[in-house]
Structures are given as structure tokens and as C-alpha cells.
Amino acid sequence: MASQATGREQTPQIRLQSLNEKTQSPLFQRRRIAHGDNTHDEDTGQGLPQPDPGTGMSLGNAVCRRCGNGFGLQEQIINSNGEVWHTSCFVCAQCFQPFPEGTFYEFEGRKYCEHDFRVLFAPSCGKCGEFISGRVIKAMNSSWHPQCFICQICGDCMADSGFVKNAGRALCRECNAKEKARGTGKYVCHKCHDLIEVNGHIKFKGEAYHPYHFNCNSCGVELNTEAREKDGELYCLRCHDKMGIPICGACRRPIEERVVHALGKTWHVEHFVCAKCEKPFLGTRHYEKKGLAYCEIHYHQLFGNICFVCNNIINGDVFSAFNKAWCVHHFACSICDRKMSQKTKFFEFDLKPVCKNCYDKFPGELKKRLKKAYDEQNKK
């Protein structure tokens, strides 16, 4: 059973922060003022802010968030989210190194450099294997980049359209419908993607559709299963038949694609068949007899020659002489049994073929009588 699901997006609860404000924290400014440093800020040129008595912050109780120790009078302080740190203590919780370019990831109250955060927490894409930063698609027990989450049949991206799980594969809805239809012998409508009942479809530009999705390009009537395509447009059967399109000699329906001309008629390729076995010729040789077409095997079976030697129907090439027929491998001299071909010179004796070597051994009187009989036969 195919189950339908939708890829869920999950983004780790992290906070990407910068250390641009790491030195000039309010606490650091208050400490400078408390010790008589009333100089102007070198960067802004503005007076430093005065301490706020309402914060409850004092030099005595300010301690580093990591080591728990206090700060020196002129020591540089890092302020992050209201917490203060020694510069040497403000490091990655995994590798204990300063954050490159002051950028860190915060996860569950701990701060990590980008490399360690990815190794520890960032999901790997189920397709490309790379770490995923930002939007994550959770589906099929894996994580995916949005652009990597694609249908396993057609390759279309499914990050925003949803997917259907089918036999352990992630498929788009259209491909899933086609897979289901394949098992039932039905078509899937290329427009609405619903199953089409048996013999209830029309073909348009190589795809199957419900006919009611279209109207005749000529008269505008809603189409049915008898609709026909011509030059990239759909027509009802009535309008189509008025366009001079050849009609199949078997099914009496218009021929829209390849046409076979035979027996003075036109045929669909698949409808031009042997009158005996009803197999399509599909471009192979056919034989005509009394207005019907036959494949080579059944033509010879029904109307072929009988070999004078083996009395079997001759399939393939026939050697004919003296109103008789021979299989290729049975055509031989009736005296010495030497195999002969159509190019071999032979003579008739008692309505049988005789090779030249045997004929030359005949008595002279016999050869004269044979020649005389042959000449009289030709005169008739």
C-alpha cells in the first residue's frame, strides 16, 4: 500500500550571532566610569553611558559565565545575551578555540564554532551527503536539502509539492498515480492525474486524458473517446472525417499516424494482418491472393507448390520446370542425382530434369528424337 505523506521542515533551534559588540558591553562601560575613566569612545566619539543603578549590576558580583571568576579593572569583557565572559573563556564548547570571525552557533545554551556545530548537530542530506544549513526537509527517515528531495522516477523537486511513499520510494503524486494505474491496466489522466476507466481515454500528444477535458477545435462540442488528433489539435469524429483523412480498411476509423497502402486500400499499421493467422505484417513481406493478404508461411501452406521429390509444401524459393516444382535442395538430375540450380543447364527427359553430362551420354538417335519433340512442343 502506498502511503501519502508530506515532507516536514525542521530547523534546529540555534542562534547565529556575531561578536561585533563583544568589547563595548554596558558592564564594561560602567566599570570604566566607576574607575574614573571618562574618556570618549574611540570609535563613536560619544561620551560613555553612565551606570544604571536599577540593573543591580556591580563590580563585586560580575563573574565570567564560563569560569565563574571576576574581571580585572581594565580587562576586556565580552557580553553575549546579557552574560559576560573573559575573552579567553569565550570559546567553542567543543574544540575550545576562539570563534573564527566572531561567528558562533548557540544550541541548548552552549556555543559552537561552525565546523563543530555541523559535525555534532547539523543533519546530512540523504541524497548528496553534505551538511544541511538552513531549511531541512524531513522525510523517508532522512534529512534532505530542499533541492535534493526529488521524485525517484521523474526527478521533479518535491520540497513544496509534497510526496507519496510508494514501495519504499518517494514519488510525486503524478508518478505515484501512474504506478498505481500500471498495476490495474488503466491510464492516468495527464491533466487531473486521476485514473481513467478502461477504454475511457483519448491520446493527445502522446499522453492519456479524460476526453471531457477538451472541446472540438472545429465545432466546440465536448469530446468523447472517439475524438481524433490532427496537426496538434483535437476534433470530434464528425469534424475529423470531413477533413479527407484516410480510413482504415479493417476498423473503418480514420488513420492519424502511419498508413499502409495495400490491396487497393489504406490500413492502420497494426490492422494490416495475415488473413490466416491475423498477425500484423509490420513492414514484412506479404502475399496477395483473391483480395486477401497472407504471410509467407500461410500463403505457401494454402496456395504454395508441392515438391516433386518430398511431396511437402515448399516454403521459400521454388524451382519450377515441366509444370513441376522442387525444393531448392531437392532439385537434382533424375539420373545421377547431381544437385542443380537455376543457372545449371539441364534437359527434359520423360518430364524430368537431366544434367548436361548425362544428356551427352544418350545415344545420338535418342537425342535427335528428344530435340524433335522439343521443337514441336515450342511450335505449339
TrEMBL record:
Keyword rRNA-binding: no
Keyword annotations of the record: Cell junction, LIM domain, Metal-binding, Repeat, Zinc
Listed Gene3D superfamilies: Cysteine Rich Protein
Polar residues: bias regions: 1-27
Region annotated Disordered, chain positions: 1-28
Any one GO biological process: cell-cell adhesion
MF annotations from Gene Ontology: metal ion binding
Signal sequence range: none
Pfam families the record matches: LIM
Domain LIM zinc-binding: 62-123, 124-182, 187-245, 246-305, 306-365
Descriptive protein name: LIM domain-containing protein
